[in-house]
Amino acid sequence: MRPTALKSWARTRGGDVAVLQLGGASGLQTVELADSPVEAGDTVTAVGDAGGDGGTLTSASGTVTDERTSITVTDEQTGQRSRLRRLIEVDADVVSGDSGGALTNDSGQVVGMTVAASSGGADIAGYAIPIVRVLRVLDQVLSGDAAGGVSIGYDAFLGVTMGTGLQLVDVVDGSAAESAGLSAGDTLTALGSRRVSTQAELRRAVTSHSPGEEVTVSWQDADGSAHSATVTLGRAPVA
User: Fold this and answer.
1) For the chain, does the N or the C end have fewer beta carbons within 10 angstroms?
2) pLDDT tens-digit profile of 74-95?
3) How many alpha carbons lie under 13 Å from residue 191 in its C-beta half-sphere?
């Protein structure tokens, strides 16, 4: 049966692991998890939705080149940088859309969850969180423990799309931003008590609140005039 609704979710803010609860998802085939860690030289396959087009699953095979490495990643939307540690490094051709997919061994057992890939070079390196760590996050979430960077529930949502800097290129229909009167060409300057000058600062400002909270949003229009309005933040989509 095809899943029809997302009911709830939780994630780690620094670990890129999310736990989803789906409605209408009974009868799905489960995966088999590996009971031993990978070693350098092991053959692995990254399975995912290469390109993120929602089409047929794809796979990319390679070998483990490091069982425990750390990388700095950059959010493609906000430019925010963060450090991910204790990852499996593989020489498989991992691309956008594979993130969140399974990394399997040569027996088809899941050994990790793909989380990132290198860019800017001819040789691609993929990175995955070991499955034992993914399971630890799962256990923590299911027990309702929000400690250690785990966030249970949805982030707040303003409803804007930006190009360069904080100038808007689009506003989501029915969002808090639309209710405030924001439109393409406006430039955000503050949210609540926080002045913002980068997309990363805006993201932190929004996620410091909860869905349903009232905040003041401030901006300049294309003519340079200043505006502000009080809005009720919505609930962020997971995708």
Assistant:
1) C
2) 765 555 677 888 999 999 988 7
3) 30
